[in-house]
Amino acid sequence: MSFFELPLLSFLEWYIMWYFTMALSGKLTKKLVENLGAGRHGDGNGLYLVVDPSGARRWIVRVVVKGQKNKKGAPLRTDFGLGGADIVTINQARERALEYRRMAKQGLNPRFNVTREIPTFEEVAQQVHIERLPTWKNAKHGQQWINTLRDYAFPKIGRMPIDSIDQPEVMMCLAPIWTEKHETAKRLAQRMKVVLDVARSKGFRSGENPVTLVKEAQVLPKVKVRVKHHKAMAWQDVPAFYAGLTNRNAMAANALRFTCLTGSRTTEVLKMRWEELDFDMGIWTCPAERMKGYEEHRVPLTSQMLEIIEPLKALKSDFVFEGQKRNYPLSNMAMLMLLRRMGVEGVTVHGFRSTFRDWVSETGNGQWEVAERSLSHKVGTKVERAYARSDLLEKRRALMTQWSDFVASAKLNLE
């Protein structure tokens, strides 16, 4: 039987099958959807995959609404979001795009005639977490971000549609831990606010953020938080302690000596690489991604610092302070455990920064601003910092030399 001899019903069935096959096929494939770089990638028939610089992927469809004009009198062409590519498959996107085009051809604006699928709070939070992973300082910080929501928000409101969350639901999450775990509660509030803000920006919510409303209403009690400072060694005791470290050959002892002399943070020291060191200029440049303030920090190297690190070149490791595993840095706990083995109680590694600061204040060696810059602290207001471009390197070199001389002064009295 030829095509022209098909019964009418068979012809209609064939045409419907052909129409849907053509409508639901396009240029993109599942593999392309997963691997295409940043930009807008067309699938055909007004459907696009949008890949953000962060790697987040979402579908949009562009339609022209029949009989409707924009302010300039041209046909009304509008883009509509169809959801993230991690949730909406390519075939689902094509089906939704086809539905939107049908409505537009009938003169119906999809914006007012489609019931959108509202995601849950947990779905939006997980998507925000994925989209922001490249912006976090490290993977650990990113995991902590989602863990706070997982532990304190998801059990209560995780399955709720994001548009149904209001002040009572926010209070449900915050109130139980507001006084007992206040710092955690503040972080939870900030992260919930971000999720709800993102949901609003994507059209899943409207109105004021309920987290903001809860804060402004001051319905949660004020909590006085005692600032817990890192336990520090008295600066007068440092030379004798440092002399004891000098007699130890362990890598942890080398790292702890260097930390004492530089006043740097633990991670800044332990993850230091050889390419960060300029021996000719006598400078260690710690990159911004490893600094607490996300700004590059230059540390002047004194003779005592060089005595510690120069012999370590022979190890030919990527890291200056190599751990037990080849080409891996020393463990974060190595220096603290060394303090415990030495019987030094009530002192933390981070506390040596405070020790240095106390020494500067009490001995009158150096100006306040120079000491703060040595600790990579921000000094002054944003406006003041905008005009104060210098990092006072040479003044800091002189101060760090005085500090190094003081710290190592007891070494000569060991015999």
Secondary structure elements and their pairing?
Elements: H1 8-23, H2 30-35, E1 39-44, E2 47-51, E3 57-69, E4 75-84, H3 90-105, H4 110-113, H5 121-132, H6 139-152, H7 154-157, H8 167-174, H9 182-201, H10 210-217, H11 238-246, H12 251-262, H13 266-270, E5 277-278, E6 283-286, E7 297-300, H14 303-309, H15 334-341, H16 351-363, H17 368-374, H18 382-387, H19 393-407
Antiparallel strand pairs: 1-2, 2-3, 3-4, 5-6, 6-7
Provide a brief overview of the structure.
This protein has 415 residues and is an alpha+beta fold.
What distance separates the N and C termini?
A: 110 Å
Largest sheet: 4 strands, antiparallel
Percent helix among the residues? Answer: 40-55%
Protein structure class = alpha+beta
Count the beta strands: 7
CATH architectural arrangement of the largest domain: Orthogonal Bundle
Pfam families: Arm-DNA-bind_3, Phage_int_M, Phage_integrase
Protein name: Integrase
Keywords: DNA integration, DNA recombination, DNA-binding
InterPro entries: DNA_brk_join_enz, Integrase-like_cat_sf, Integrase_catalytic, Integrase_DNA-bd_sf, Integrase_DNA_bind_dom, Integrase_recombinase_N, Phage_int_M, Phage_Integrase
